[in-house]
Amino acid sequence: xxxxxxxxxxxxxxxxxxxxxxxxxxxxxxxxxxxxxxxxxxxxxxxxxxxxxxxxxxxxxxxxxxxxxxxxxxxxxxxxxxxxxxxxxxxxxxxxxxxxxxxxxxxxxxxxxxxxxxxxxxxxxxxxxxxxxxxxxxxxxxxxxxxxxxxxxxxxxxxxxxxxxxxxxxxxxxxxxxxxxxxxxxxxxxxxxxxxxxxxxx
Length: 202
Ligand code: Z5A
Hints:
This protein has a five-stranded parallel β-sheet with strand order 2-3-1-4-5, sandwiched between helices. The chain is built from eight helices and five strands; from the N terminus they run βαβααβααβααβα. The relative contact order is 0.20. It is α/β, with parallel strands linked by helices. It is globular. The protein starts with a strand and ends with a helix. Helix content is 57%, strand content 13%. It has a single domain (2-201), classed as Rossmann fold (3-Layer(aba) Sandwich). The longest helix has 25 residues, at 59-83. Ligand Z5A binds next to helix 1, helix 4, helix 6 and helix 8.
């Protein structure tokens, strides 16, 4: 099973992924977790460039680097694990490129980004995607102590466009389940488990 988590920064993805991994481990089901960008030596080097490179990075360069990191992760880790029957969970996947580089930066049309995503994912499609939907205010309160990286330094209007992009994607794609991420950690986990168990039975 291939599961991805999406949402704006601070929506609680990392917290929920940790709980879901614990659930699979209790079930004695092999489960691997990777973050995007990242998850391989090459992809982690690209992550450093993307999050800590200079503010002068060109938006098309940024879009291509996210895709390059993804291609390496899918080819080197995700696809071989899925072939072995391991559950793979990704903290972000290509929906983030649609939301951030497509709707947020407007680096290319959504059609072009979809083509790029198809190439960079090696045509691997998630079985389930959880979109943790949260207001910008709640997300800001949860992350205000953190030091801001290059992406996080983009302004409020950029993040409003990204959030609207995620909403639009979720309304268009049946694999995407929107979860109310304003709830407690426990209630969000329960919603996610219900969807995972329903998928496993189907
Ligand atoms: N990006 C892109 O532009 N294009 C792409 O294609 C891809 C990515 C793949 C990666 O950032 C950046 O790259 C990201 C998008 C961009 N940039 N932005 N902006 P990252 O990997 O460094 O981090 P992130 O994915 O944006 O999120 P995060 O900071 O790791 O947050 P999170 O995982 O969503 O949340 P969390 O760490 O689980 O929780 C945040 C805090 O809230 C923490 O203190 C928790 O204890 C607390 N929390 C969590 N859940 C709750 C609930 N339910 N109630 C109260 N408090 C909670």
